[in-house]
């Protein structure tokens, strides 16, 4: 059962300078179906729109970002709700308790003048149910214990904790009310490898304990290989391939995914790795047709004119490339 | 002197930073009595790897002469560069050793055209006599990095992509025909799909043009891919130094082991199995007695907490650990 549906989503950054309107097409016609109880990875390089997609999914749309079209739907169990149609009050109710968002660089969000447990209580007081508000101390302690973090962190100030621990505390914070969906944007990017491993371990543990859905965005393919169940590859504002982690790594279809996977260096393997030629396009003025066509080694005439549609070619493996599908996306 | 055939000799190099006031400040030993050398005859890519705060950038900056070491010596082709006085000697040294920085968008002034940097470097370092000669030289070096002057002429930094701009900054470093490049995290800000092209460029420069490279990084996968030798740093000390195959495929120091095991493999078949433990509190390891890694080390014994280990040569590499004594 899908818990989150993204349908033909279009979100552009619109800037007006001296009366000239320019739009950066960061998310352009993206559709996704995210299942319950899975870790879903979104991969892509910087500036491909992956962070923007996350922001729209959690309903954080602030100018200059604006929603052009499409829909995001959460499955609340009874019916589908959309963050775009809720009032601010209603939306605040589902934040943290139904969907929670761990932004980039979140180890720096803790208030330096308050002890960690205060921050936890704040969240419960604002977003929790009456039941949870009564037991806020025990809930906090049990949660920290369940995640295998030491209890003494609750009684510390943020500066006393190591960077990796702060990052894990914010993850514990994001999951205190047991949300159905956790959305994490580059949760390990600024961390050292050893700490990164600890943080990913915690994320996996959270997912195992609460059986919720974790959407994780990172440019690091090795992280996806280790944690994600399914992966979507994004390129220049569009999703070019979606599949199970194994299929993406062992049997990539889209030429861009192939480059991405084959260029990864591995310890113990010194064979020559090649990067894709050229550079990612500007989203202000993306290329016509398939956005990868100027860099693609297998480019055909149709690629320059039409946009390929993301189509299923194998069970659970979809690709947007004319080498595999004839379907054309309607603009 | 024995330094005759060495390109670079770093001996007993120390840098102490004082944080806070001059009298009340806390001493932070960023690099603690480190030594290594590089051969002149055989160009190589030498990687210095480690976590953030291990002192790798400080070490590189001392080699470049940007910061002064607290004690110790750096010999470049037999000359002690910490004692350079005259402007000419300094210029000579800068011609030979060139830096490449992390973020290409910060390397270049956004208000200046990219080619002006190339022309200025060529003229200031005396590589050419006039502007028309400068253009010939620039065309030459740009071709080495896979660009041409047409692609960068009259362009501002923001008009080039990150990968292109990093190539331009490598080209700039090559204008003076250096023997050594010091590259501080050169690919960490470059997009994944073009990262390997920059990494391959270093390999080409070494193989085809005999340029040695000190490659500073935290990315162990690319380090393995390009380097000949690697030094693993931890809290100001090189804990293991040797050929990259030896150090990374068969690590001896417990820290190197931990580090290499923590690198995620880009392969779903090779997922991590067991869990690891992390320290919760901010570590004060810079000031620690004995082995700085002993607090985190699973194999630590009593002496590790008290006595600083010596460097021992085992199995083709230097290891700084009591275990091998």
Structural account:
The complex is a heterodimer of chains A (331) and B (325). By secondary structure, chain A is of the alpha/beta class. Chain A contains 11 helices and 12 strands. An 8-stranded mixed sheet of chain A has the order 6-7-8-3-9-10-12-11, sandwiched between helices. In chain A, strand 1 (2-17) and strand 2 (20-35) form a beta hairpin. Chain A starts with a strand and ends in a 12-residue tail after the last strand. The model of chain A has no long low-confidence stretch (mean pLDDT 89). In chain B, the strands form 2 sheets. Chain B has an 8-stranded mixed sheet, sandwiched between helices. Chain B has a 4-stranded antiparallel sheet with strand order 2-1-4-5, with helices on one face. With 325 residues, chain B is an alpha/beta fold. Chain B has helices at residues 56-64, 87-96, 104-107, 114-124, 131-144, 149-152, 162-174, 192-209, 220-226, 244-249, 254-262, 302-306; strands spanning 6-19, 26-39, 45-49, 71-76, 79-80, 97-100, 180-184, 212-217, 229-234, 237-243, 311-314, 317-320. In chain B, helix 8 links the parallel strand 7 and strand 8. Chain B is globular. The chains are: A alpha/beta (331), B alpha/beta (325). At the A-B interface, helix 7, helix 8, helix 9 and helix 10 of A face helix 7, helix 8, helix 9 and helix 11 of B.
